[in-house]
Every structure is written in structure tokens, then in C-alpha cells.
Design brief:
The complex is a heterodimer of chains A (about 425) and B (about 180). Among the domains of chain A are: about 50 residues; about 120 residues, no CATH class. Chain A is built from 22 helices and no strands. Chain B folds into two domains: about 80 residues, RNA polymerase sigma factor, region 2, helix turn helix motif (Rna Polymerase Sigma Factor, Chain: A); about 70 residues, Winged helix-like DNA-binding domain superfamily/Winged helix DNA-binding domain (Arc Repressor Mutant, subunit A). Helix content of chain B is about 70%, strand content about 0%. Chain B is built from eight helices and no strands. Classes of the chains: A mainly alpha (about 425), B mainly alpha (about 180).
Chain lengths: ~425, ~180
């Protein structure tokens, strides 16, 4: 057994694929040959070491991201013309609808870090019942939750900075001595401030939002958009670009790495396609003309003319081929000069996606940098647009000023409550 | 497991989305690792893993029962990963991730030795041609049989065996003699 045969036999044995005879033969060889034993030991160490290489853990949230992406894709494939679905109220459809929403919530919810799902990512029946069992309770809070999400998107709340710190306004009427000197501390006023906002009131009463709020998936979408308002706006500014980018991440990265060069490549591919079409059209036209000429010639009994027509057609085809070859060569040379042949190929393979991505670089970048947000937003574009635009056109309130006013009022109310309490206490004494 | 997979796939095709999540939870790790072994970039491996399951959504109806389900998934994963590789992304060395669970019951020197050895092996594998990486990762990291590898790569078993032997020989050439570990 030579060296190569020995290596092969050892690997076969270590792979567990050797026959008993092959194993025995190797054993006998190892008993009498020290170099074979050394070789066997080396191979064995390699096999053991390969077997000990630990499996890497996928990144956290991968299941959620996959689920969200799959839901978006599935919705796109199955339900392209039903942006919000229907509100079912009876029978099995309702149950099915709840399951559908819960699946979406499971995916996005875990992306958002909520701990409401089981370890393997599947929401149990019991959990589903607890989440969706009290529909009335949900319905009561749904519009408010959705409105908060919408307002956060539309008004860019909560405002950042120090201009919302509450000021305790002095009470004008009788002021009882304070029980302690601690200043009144206001809790986080963001939501309260938001809920007393006129626009919030309009949003809550908006019929479109009321319809949307019936869907748990849309409520989660509102939360996702509230967390990434800028990205959501950008994504919705050009849905085609965002969708193309989020579905073709590698292509988008390649294209957006150098937008100008990519646009040049796209134009080159487009030119090549146009040229190919033109050549084909020219060939067809030449063929038709020649055929007509030939038919005319045959009809007239002028075989010679037919031959000439055939020659003319052949010449035209040949000329087209030469021109096509030259142009293709030029295109190749240009691509080689630019050192971007791979990009050219990539664009040619996914031409429409490339066009879409480059049609809006900003939207594509936003989608690429926020793939999970993009998937959520693109899963229901119409809902996303409603969430983004509801009442935004009517929004004239200065959010920061409103926040200060609301906080002042809240602080005054606390002061007055304390004063009233002290009055009652004094009267009792 | 195979029958179970097919049952889950049928349920998923019938509209049961929890079946889809079960399949994702079951196969995300091996699919991710298969892609990682080829690409060596966690971001790329994540992308490929997502793409594989999106393909399942898109092409689930096209699943051919003559293939084992996971072979079919792996095949998609390997093709996607090779596609990403062909697009010319740069590879960067993967930091060796240390899993404390692997260290239980062993002394620190042993743990360190094994971690270093694993790192050495990974670097060695990543230094090999892509065909070698694919067969090595399928056989040793994903523990596929020759038959499964043949199915995934659409090769005959003899070719798989030959490629595997050559890949291991080249890996030994890269690694040199391995001390007793």
C-alpha cells in the first residue's frame, strides 16, 4: 500500500465507511509499520479536531427577523390587494384572523425585545388566548396605542432636549402649609402630554385609524415605525426602491457602494439591452422586407430578384451581427476599464431591482440599514402610509410648547389636590 | 425527523404558520453554520439564512420529495452562499467565538488548547478553496453523510469522497502536524 492509498484507507476507516476486511488490513499494517501508525495518529487528530470545532450560534433575533420577512413576503405573494384585511366578527374567520395577527406579533415582538413568546419562538395557545381573549379591552386601548405610535411618527415625539422639563405653577388661591418640603416630582409626562394634545384627539377620532387599530399587526407596525420614524419615512418615500434593497441586500450594498459608477453600469446594461432589441428588430424588419421582395419576385417570376433579396437580407443580418459584436466588445472594454465587470453582471441579472434601488438611493440606504424595519413597513405599505400621514397635514401644534403647558397644568392639579386634602384635614380637626 | 419535516412543510403550505416557525427554529443553526463555513462573515451568513427561509416561503410548493427536506434546504443554503461568494464580498477573519457550554467539566488548559485548536482548524479551512470548504463543512461541521452531501451538491458519492479526501489532504498540508490534543 503506497502513501496515497494508505491515506485513503485511513480516511475511509475514520469516516466509518470501511468494510471489515479493509479495517483488518489496516490494523495489521499499523501493527507492523511505525510510519503508518504515525500517519494514522495524525489523521485521527485531524478528525477529532474537526469534530470539536464548535457550531456558531446564529445571532439573536434571527428567527424573528426571518418570521417577519417571511410574513412580509407571504403577504406580498398572497394578499397584494388587501392592504388592511377585513375585520371579522364571527365564526372561524375571526379565530384565523387572530392567529394571523399573533404570528406577526410574535415575529416583530421578539424583534422589539418583548418577552411574550416561548423560547422556541412560538406563541402558545394559552398565550394567544391571554393576548387576544379580551377583545373589548384591546379595542378600548387599541386606538390610543396606535395613536401614540402615529403621533410619535407624525410629530417626532417625544421631543429631545430639556425644553419639556415641568414647571410648578404657584396656586393663586389659599395655600395650605406643605407637609414636607420635597418638591413635587412629575412622572414621565410624555404620554400624558401626548394624550392631551389636540392632534392626538383628532387622531383618536380618525375613522381610518379606528379601523386600523383593530389589527394587532398594525399596532405593532405603529410601534416599529415610532421607533424608527426617519427610516420609516425614507422607506415609504420609495417603496419599490426599499423593497428591492431589502430583498437584494448584497446587490444593494454593491450598488450603493458607489452610486455614480453603479448608475453608469446600469445605463450601460440598458444601452446593451436596447441595442440588442434594435438589432433583433432590424433583423426582423430586414427579414420581412426580404421576404416581401422574394414573394414579389417569385410572383413576378423573377428568381434573380429573389436571390438578390436573399443576399440583401443576409448582408443586413451579417451587418447587424458585426455591429452587435463591435458594440458588445466596446461595452466589455468599458466594463473592464472601469474594473466593475462583476457589478455589470449583477445588474444584468437583476436589472429591475437595480433600477429600483438606484431610483432612490436614500430610500434604498434606509431600507438596507434598517432591514427589519423595512420588512415590517413593507409588509403593509398602505397601513404604513396611513400611520405616517394621518393628520400630519393638520398638525400645527408646537409639540414642545404643548408639552410645557400640559405639564404646568398637571403640576397645578397636584398642588390643588394637596391643598384640598389639607383643607379637609384641618376641617376634621 | 424527515417525516416530521415533511408534515410540517405540508402544514405550512396549508397555512399553518407555526409550522414554519418550527422549521426555522429547527434548521436556522445548521443553515447558518453551513453558510458561515463558506462565507466566514456572520452578517453574510445571517443574510443567507434569511434568504433560505424566504425561498422556502416562495418555493415551498416546488419542494421535490425525492430529496430529503434538510438536504433541499442545505442545497439552497450552499447555492446562496456560493452566490454571495461569487459576488466578491471580502472575507474577514471571524473572531473565534467561545461557547462556555463547551468548557464544562474540563480544566482551563484543556479548554484553551481546544479553543486554540478550533481556531487553528477554522483558519485552516478558510484558507482552502471554496469547494474544499463546502465539503469539509458539510461533512465535519454539519455532520452530513456522503449520500447527503452528494444530494446537496448534486454530485455522485464517488466524487464527494474524492473531493473530501483531497480537501482533508490539503487541510493537513496547511495545518502541519497536529500535536496530541
Amino acid at each position: 500500500m503506497n502513501h496515497a492509498e494508505l491515506s485513503e484507507r485511513i480516511q475511509t476507516v475514520l469516516d466509518g465507511l470501511a468494510t471489515p476486511d479493509e479495517e483488518r488490513e489496516l490494523e495489521r499494517l499499523l501493527e507492523r509499520d511505525a510510519s503508518a501508525r504515525a500517519a494514522f495518529n495524525q489523521w485521527q487528530r485531524l478528525f477529532v479536531a474537526l469534530g470539536r470545532v464548535p457550531q456558531a450560534a446564529p445571532p439573536e433575533g434571527l428567527v424573528a427577523a426571518v418570521s417577519a420577512a417571511a410574513e412580509a413576503r407571504r403577504a406580498e405573494l398572497n394578499d397584494a390587494h388587501q392592504p388592511f384585511g377585513t375585520i371579522d366578527v364571527i365564526g372561524d374567520k375571526r379565530r384565523e384572523r387572530r392567529t394571523s395577527s399573533s404570528w406577526f406579533v410574535t415575529g416583530i415582538g421578539r424583534y422589539l425585545g418583548s418577552g411574550s413568546t416561548t423560547e422556541n419562538g412560538i406563541m402558545s395557545e394559552q398565550q394567544q388566548r391571554s393576548v387576544f381573549g379580551n377583545r373589548k379591552l384591546w379595542a378600548g386601548g387599541a386606538v390610543a396605542v396606535l395613536a401614540v405610535g402615529v403621533a410619535m411618527v407624525a410629530f417626532d415625539l417625544p421631543p429631545k432636549g430639556d425644553n419639556v422639563i415641568g414647571t410648578v405653577a404657584p396656586a393663586e388661591r389659599y395655600r395650605a402649609p406643605q407637609d414636607n418640603a420635597e418638591p413635587v416630582k412629575l412622572a414621565d409626562q410624555t404620554v400624558a402630554q401626548l394624550m392631551q394634545n389636540d392632534n392626538f384627539d383628532r387622531i383618536v377620532k380618525d375613522p381610518q385609524l379606528q379601523a386600523l387599530s383593530q389589527d394587532a399587526g398594525i399596532r405593532v407596525l405603529a410601534q416599529v415605525m415610532a421607533r424608527s420614524p426617519e427610516a420609516s419615512r425614507m422607506i415609504l418615500s420609495n417603496v419599490e426602491a426599499s423593497r428591492a434593497a431589502s430583498e437584494n441586500v448584497a446587490l444593494a450594498q454593491a450598488l450603493l457602494g458607489n452610486v455614480e459608477a453603479s448608475r453608469a453600469e446600469l445605463a450601460a446594461v440598458q444601452a446593451e439591452r436596447n441595442r440588442a432589441n434594435a438589432v433583433e428588430a432590424g433583423r426582423a424588419e430586414a427579414g420581412l422586407q426580404a421576404e416581401r421582395a422574394r414573394m414579389n419576385a417569385v410572383e413576378a417570376g423573377r428568381v434573380e430578384a429573389g436571390l438578390q433579396a436573399e443576399r440583401a437580407r443576409m448582408n443586413a443580418v451579417e451587418a447587424g451581427r458585426v455591429e452587435a459584436g463591435l458594440q458588445a466588445e466596446r461595452t466589455r472594454m468599458n466594463a473592464a476599464e472601469a474594473g466593475r465587470a462583476d457589478l455589470n453582471r449583477l445588474i444584468a441579472q437583476k436589472f429591475e431591482a437595480s433600477q429600483a434601488i438606484l431610483a432612490s438611493v436614500e430610500a434604498s440606504r434606509a431600507a438596507l440599514q434598517n432591514v427589519a424595519v423595512a420588512q415590517a413597513v413593507l409588509s403593509n405599505v398602505e397601513a404604513g402610509r396611513v400611520l405616517l400621514n394621518v393628520d400630519a397635514s393638520r398638525a400645527t401644534l408646537q409639540a414642545a410648547e404643548a408639552g410645557r403647558m400640559v405639564q404646568k397644568a398637571e403640576a397645578s392639579r397636584v398642588q390643588l389636590d394637596r391643598a384640598a386634602s389639607a383643607d379637609r384635614k384641618a376641617a376634621g380637626n | 425527523m424527515e417525516d416530521d419535516d415533511r408534515a410540517l412543510l405540508l402544514r405550512f403550505q396549508g397555512g399553518d404558520r407555526s409550522a414554519f416557525e418550527t422549521l426555522v427554529a429547527r434548521y436556522q443553526r445548521p443553515i447558518y453554520n453551513a453558510a458561515l463555513a463558506i462565507l466566514h462573515r456572520p452578517e453574510d451568513a445571517s443574510d443567507v439564512t434569511q434568504t433560505v427561509f424566504l425561498r422556502l416561503v416562495e418555493r415551498g410548493d416546488g419542494y421535490d420529495p425525492q430529496y430529503k427536506f434538510f438536504s433541499w434546504l442545505y442545497r439552497i443554503a450552499v447555492n446562496e452562499a456560493l452566490d454571495v461568494l461569487r459576488r466578491g464580498r471580502h472575507q474577514t477573519a471571524l473572531d473565534d467565538d467561545f461557547d462556555p457550554a463547551d468548557a464544562e467539566g474540563r480544566g482551563p488548559e484543556d479548554v484553551l488548547t481546544r479553543a486554540e485548536m478550533s481556531q487553528q482548524i477554522r483558519r485552516g479551512v478558510m484558507g482552502l478553496p471554496v469547494n474544499d470548504r463546502v465539503v469539509l463543512s458539510l461533512r465535519h461541521f454539519s455532520e452530513c453523510s456522503y449520500e447527503q452531501i452528494a444530494e446537496i451538491l448534486d454530485l455522485d458519492e464517488k466524487t464527494v469522497k474524492s473531493r473530501l479526501f483531497e480537501a482533508r489532504r490539503r487541510l493537513r498540508g496547511v495545518l502541519g502536524d497536529l500535536g496530541p490534543g
